[in-house]
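Hi, here's the filled form for the chain we discussed.

Project: internal
Contact: R.S.
Residues: 115
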Amino acid sequence: MAKKKIKLNDLHQAHGKDESSETVQSLDQLWGDDGLSKYKTLEISEYTQQLAEMNKSDLQNHAAKLGLVPIDSREILVKRLVSEFKKHTTKYQPVRKPQAKDDSKEAKVRKLLSD
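And the returned structure, exactly as it came back:
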């Protein structure tokens, strides 16, 4: 009896990744942390509004809670806080999958003809 030949396209490799939930990027997110516990928001406009409403001592206390050195210049402190906020929010944004590049001859011809 002859063995049935298996095509390469029919093979699948187990990688252990749950493909149903692509937005989970860290263990904290897997355990339910949505990123709101540190800043109470993930929107930059809401956070800058919160910072604008704080006085200088509140800003310094907020910076100290986040692990930043509370400096005397309000402008520089706000810039540092916003920078740290942006770093924090990037951890909770979904990763975009890269687009598959079409390197076929037809795609190259279409590109040349479109120019």
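Let me know if anything looks off before we file it.
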